[in-house]
């Protein structure tokens, strides 16, 4: 007695569910990836083997023409004088005492200008991070 098969088995593989999975993975990685703060000021950072592990929120930038810029969180950088840096950092520190201040200095900036900013951080007990680019 011969039994007949009522349906045919097809050897095709449906890619519809695979594209859904890839789409969901893409969304997942886009959401969970770190947000990079774009630096609109042209600063050529010095090279370094180690990169900063802390996530700085407040930024102080010195360009090659010795112009000073400050920004907090997702704000855009605004130009300030050297005398305005300390009050700005103190106001940010009073709102958030656990801040890290990132110092972006062009590699052509004289060391004495960087030390001035480091002195401000040292006098006010701010945690300062020197930003560099990967080697």
Automatic annotation (TrEMBL):
Main location group: membrane
Any one GO CC term of the record: plasma membrane
Keyword check for Ubl conjugation: no
Keywords attached to this entry: Cell membrane, Membrane, Transmembrane, Transmembrane helix
GO MF annotation, one: transmembrane transporter activity
Subcellular location: Cell membrane
Sections of the chain in a coiled coil: none
Pfam families attached to this UniProt entry: ExbD
Presence of the UniProt keyword Glycoprotein in the record: no
InterPro entries for this protein: ExbD
Membrane topology value: Single-pass membrane protein
Membrane-traversing stretches: 21-41
Record's protein name: Biopolymer transport protein ExbD
Organism expressing this protein natively: bioreactor metagenome
């Amino acid at each position: 007695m011969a039994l007949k098969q009522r349906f045919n088995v097809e050897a095709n593989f449906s890619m519809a569910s695979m594209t859904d999975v890839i789409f969901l993975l893409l969304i997942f990685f886009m959401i969970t990836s770190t947000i990079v703060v774009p630096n609109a000021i042209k600063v050529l950072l010095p090279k370094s083997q180690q990169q900063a592990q802390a996530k700085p929120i407040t930024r102080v930038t010195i360009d090659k023409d010795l112009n000073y810029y400050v920004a907090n969180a997702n704000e855009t950088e605004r130009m300030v004088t050297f005398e305005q840096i300390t009050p700005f950092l103190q106001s940010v520190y009073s709102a958030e005492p656990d801040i890290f201040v990132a110092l972006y200095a062009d590699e052509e900036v004289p060391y004495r200008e960087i030390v001035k900013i480091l002195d401000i951080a040292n006098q006010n007990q701010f945690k300062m991070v020197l930003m560099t680019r990967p080697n």
